Input
Amino acid sequence: MALLTRSPYRCPGDDSVIHHACAGLLTYWKRPVKEHVARTSLGETYVLTTGPATAPPVVVLAGGDLPAAGLRLLAEQFGEQHRVVLVDVPGLPGASAGSRPDSRIHAVYGHWLVEVLDALGVERVPVIGLGWSASVAAAVEDLDRIEKLVIAAPLGLVPRVRWHRALIPGLQWRNEPNLENTERYLRALAGCDYRPDEQTLRWSCRVGAYCTSLTNLPRLDRAVLRRWRGHPVEVVVGVKDPLVQVDALNKLADDMGAHFVAIPDAGHLLAVEAPAALAAMSAAVSVSENRVTVDRGGSGDAGLPPTGVVTSPASPPPVTSRRNPSNRVPDPGLR
Output
């Protein structure tokens, strides 16, 4: 197993601040949610579920901009038609373990994702990878476990834009992550007329203060991406995403045989800018055309177990539960 040394946090103990911030985000949820912790080869993996236990599941990998607990708007778009499973990737800011692989990063993450699917008890399931988690989802060890892959605002697939409108605001945010600088940075990342809500703003302040930059994470090898030819894949990007080379991503989608989707007026924060469109794509049948532009407005074979501990079969039995605000339903299978 790869050595686990790299951390997304600046100093020892900063992870506890971020974990506490994740718990705070859950107080804004109106839908009942359940929390689980899966023990995997990358350490404890935080899993948040919402929606009917018997509904077909869809898995969403949080990608660094927002943690699982911050994806409320996206989860709400699935209504009662899906069981939404939100996962914090170890090594990214969130409620999972803080260390990520020191070497063979994508191979290790690809194996980790299979462990998570095993722990959830699903054979095939749609998966959405956001931001940095797009490369994690695309690197999955067993492609047949993914019913449909949606990679949204992906980082780590094509070279990033070097000079862009969010560069200076991002440096100011890193240097002094107060509310003013954080809002300026988030608005630069997004498309037209986006204003972050209070919980997103305060979360991003903490990320700027306690987390390191993820810009040095390696890109996923093209050979790994070409494995997806013949599989249902959506590559989704905002037309005004300042971080992603949209034309290069379009060419990559063609190389993968994927369906390319460009969302007008949206930037990098698709989970909060265009959650309805993103949710619809996770279950929509891919069309034969290679490129399409969609409006910003706008549903797996196996079902998640209604309750129970989420653990990898190869791992020791589990696990812990988290603090329980009034809207969070305790899972009787957790201890």
Q: What stands out?
A: The longest strand covers residues 33-40. The chain has one domain: 4-293. The longest helix spans residues 105-120.
